[in-house]
Amino acid sequence: MPQPSERTILLVASERRELAAFARRLEKPRLLDWGLDYAAEGWCGGTRFLLAANGAGARLALRAAEEALAHARPSLIVSTGYCGALAPHLRIGDIVVCRQAGGEPGEILGVDHVVTTAGDKRKAFARTRAAAVDMESHALAQLAAGHGIPFRIIRAVSDEAGEDLGLDLNLARDGEGRIRAATVIRLALLHPFSGLPALKRLASNASCASDRLGDFLASTRFD
Q1: Tell me, what's the pLDDT at 223?
Q2: Nearest Cα residue to 109 out of 77, 139, 138
Q3: What sign for the dihedral angle of Cα 130, 135, 137, 142?
Q4: Is-contact 217 9, C-beta < 8 A?
Q5: DSSP assignment, residue 172?
Q6: What are 97's strand-pairing partners?
Q7: Is 92 a residue whose pLDDT tops 60?
Q8: C-alpha distances in Å from residue 129, one per residue of 86, 123, 132, 162
Q9: Are 203 and 15 in contact (CB under 8 A)?
Q10: Is the backbone of residue 78 left (phi > 0), alpha (psi -120 to 50) or beta?
Q11: If DSSP codes are grouped into helix, strand and coil, which group holds residue 12?
């Protein structure tokens, strides 16, 4: 059990795999029975970390964060995981760090769907100059502000601005918004000559992003 003086940081992501590389670096890790897709606790550098993931999109991210807040009051909430680059200079595995999610220059742009094409990314960048895009940080920022808890965004790029995903992941989302892996595979198999290479590229990009994110989180001083 945490001691009263211990600092607790809550990391909220969409998928367990986004947190996997960092979770491997934790001391005394244990799974938590919170009724989420994934919840865990561990220590790194003397700081207690709570990890929560419950699927893509604002609603599921809020559910994860609210469940965590029912068990603890963290000193910091971090929206983490993958993001899609909008700024042309960002590369796979690059880390985007900011404190706001409003779509201003250098920030994360919040959307309600997966941005799948390079054309849509170019339009979003031209309109907002935001560095990257995700589907959860804007909602988590509002929740943190409502609870008076400091907030930060730390995301790893999993697709570049000039890159088409090659698969419409929006078609793989279920009624609650989760991206179902089995559905993604079925979509890839519908057009195997294009879909399977796209699926392989997405998996490789995600693995790189997870590793870079784990390294960054483990080496960061959360002042």
Answers
A1: 73
A2: 138
A3: positive
A4: no
A5: G
A6: 154
A7: yes
A8: 8, 10, 9, 15
A9: no
A10: beta
A11: strand
| Separation between Cα atoms, residue 214 and residue 223, nearest integer Å | 18
Q: Judging by DSSP bridges, how do beta strands 95-98 and 108-110 pair with one another?
A: unpaired
Inter-residue contact 19 to 32 (CB < 8 Å): no
Place of tokens 């784990």: 214
The model carries a pTM of: 0.94
| Domain coordinates in residue numbering, the chain | 8-165+210-219
Length of the chain: 223
Q: What is the CATH number of domain 8-165+210-219?
A: 3.40.50.1580
Token pair in block for residue 34: 């919170």
**Any bridge partners for residue 31, and if so which?**
40
d(CA 145, CA 156): 23
Looking up tokens 């207690």 gives 48
In the prediction, which pLDDT does 4 show?
42
**Residue 59, φ and ψ in degrees, nearest 5:** -60, -45
C-alpha dist (Å) from residue 108 to 50, 129, 222: 23, 10, 19
Max intra-chain CA distance, the chain: 56
**φ and ψ at 84, to 5 degrees?**
-95, 130
Tally of CB atoms within 10 A around 69: 18
